[in-house]
Amino acid sequence: MNAGFIGVGKYVPPHIVTNADLEKRMDTSDEWIRTMTGIEERHIADESINTSDMAYHAAMDAISDAGIQPEQLGLILVATVTPDRPFPTVAAMLQERLGAKNAAAMDISAACAGFMYGVVTAKQFIESGTYDYILVIGVEKLSKITNWEDRNTAVLFGDGAGAVVVSKVSEGRGILSFELGADGSGGKHLYQDEKLVMNGREVFKFAVRQMGESAESVIYKAGLQKEDVDFLIPHQANIRIMESSRIRLGLPIEKMSKTVHKYGNTSSASIPISLTDDLAEGRVKDDDVIVFVGFGGGLTWGALCIKW
Ligand code: ACO
């Protein structure tokens, strides 16, 4: 019995901040941001929208897409490094707001790879027969830990939420393989010390190497070859990092998810947000073999190979 996604959903806050808006606020340029990152605009949540609000809207979208009721959920996992507060968890707040009265709930902290960690955790509980339906959400309000005085980081991030419902799917489909990993020695390159601090160059080098290696690893673990892959959904951190994994897998440009231009880097939310858009816009189809790969602070990484 395989675990797979039976519903997807997303939410981004309405307010859009363009590169031109940032030019007015700091010493940067639309040209630099586009060329170095691929980002054109990002959605930023105002005071009235917290992390749990974004998570709630994405969750409702995914639950309705899955055609289930909140009471059927056995577990809610929320991957975030920007919870409303340290506790109660965003997952517990959602449990109440969704009316998911039969669900256990916890947050997962693995930075941008958090959604991958959440999905792999959900897979274990589904395949062991412990729970029938698990809600996994990646959500971040990075704007509240962004140092708006630091042009090296302030231009990169956006706010948003993406959600999936994980459940049993028919044989041969769903999650075929996964990889999770961590290297705590790289923690000094990306961390929160009140605000977010990053050594962009070191993170860049790590990401290019790790994304490629992990993507290849899950393909081989699934008993497949690169030629069998129909679509790649990489963490949307920087178009240059994403492109390096696409090229390593030998995929044409139209076979890679790209939403970084409109949402920026939304950390743990970027992969489920992209998946939701890719499905809605017809880029992901039935029977496709999809590779998901993410990396983040920790340093952490995770990848999945899924047959849709
Ligand atoms: N506007 C204009 N100039 C800028 C800006 C900016 N916003 N930011 C930096 N610069 C300048 C620098 O000051 C530097 O100028 P100098 O040469 O005069 O000193 C120059 O541009 C080059 O800066 P670098 O930081 O060396 O440029 P780099 O090629 O490393 O690109 C970038 C920077 C885009 C941040 C890149 O390092 C990167 O994408 N790293 C990975 C970041 C990432 O993915 N982080 C998140 C991962 S985990 C998570 O999602 C939370």
From TrEMBL:
<dbReference type="InterPro" id="IPR004655">
    <property type="entry name" value="FabH"/>
</dbReference>
<dbReference type="GO" id="GO:0006633">
    <property type="term" value="P:fatty acid biosynthetic process"/>
</dbReference>
<keyword id="KW-0511">Multifunctional enzyme</keyword>
<comment type="pathway">
    <text>Lipid metabolism; fatty acid biosynthesis.</text>
</comment>
<dbReference type="Pfam" id="PF08545">
    <property type="entry name" value="ACP_syn_III"/>
</dbReference>
<comment type="function">
    <text>Catalyzes the condensation reaction of fatty acid synthesis by the addition to an acyl acceptor of two carbons from malonyl-ACP. Catalyzes the first condensation reaction which initiates fatty acid synthesis and may therefore play a role in governing the total rate of fatty acid production. Possesses both acetoacetyl-ACP synthase and acetyl transacylase activities. Its substrate specificity determines the biosynthesis of branched-chain and/or straight-chain of fatty acids.</text>
</comment>
<dbReference type="GO" id="GO:0005737">
    <property type="term" value="C:cytoplasm"/>
</dbReference>
<keyword id="KW-0012">Acyltransferase</keyword>
<dbReference type="GO" id="GO:0033818">
    <property type="term" value="F:beta-ketoacyl-acyl-carrier-protein synthase III activity"/>
</dbReference>
<dbReference type="InterPro" id="IPR016039">
    <property type="entry name" value="Thiolase-like"/>
</dbReference>
<keyword id="KW-0808">Transferase</keyword>
<dbReference type="GO" id="GO:0004315">
    <property type="term" value="F:3-oxoacyl-[acyl-carrier-protein] synthase activity"/>
</dbReference>
<dbReference type="InterPro" id="IPR013751">
    <property type="entry name" value="ACP_syn_III_N"/>
</dbReference>
<feature type="active site">
    <location>
        <position position="112"/>
    </location>
</feature>
<comment type="similarity">
    <text>Belongs to the thiolase-like superfamily. FabH family.</text>
</comment>
<keyword id="KW-0443">Lipid metabolism</keyword>
<dbReference type="Pfam" id="PF08541">
    <property type="entry name" value="ACP_syn_III_C"/>
</dbReference>
<keyword id="KW-0444">Lipid biosynthesis</keyword>
<feature type="domain" description="Beta-ketoacyl-[acyl-carrier-protein] synthase III N-terminal">
    <location>
        <begin position="106"/>
        <end position="184"/>
    </location>
</feature>
<dbReference type="InterPro" id="IPR013747">
    <property type="entry name" value="ACP_syn_III_C"/>
</dbReference>
<comment type="subunit">
    <text>Homodimer.</text>
</comment>
<feature type="domain" description="Beta-ketoacyl-[acyl-carrier-protein] synthase III C-terminal">
    <location>
        <begin position="221"/>
        <end position="308"/>
    </location>
</feature>
<feature type="region of interest" description="ACP-binding">
    <location>
        <begin position="236"/>
        <end position="240"/>
    </location>
</feature>
<feature type="active site">
    <location>
        <position position="235"/>
    </location>
</feature>
<keyword id="KW-0963">Cytoplasm</keyword>
<protein>
    <recommendedName>
        <fullName>Beta-ketoacyl-[acyl-carrier-protein] synthase III</fullName>
        <ecNumber>2.3.1.180</ecNumber>
    </recommendedName>
</protein>
<keyword id="KW-0276">Fatty acid metabolism</keyword>
<keyword id="KW-0275">Fatty acid biosynthesis</keyword>
<feature type="active site">
    <location>
        <position position="265"/>
    </location>
</feature>
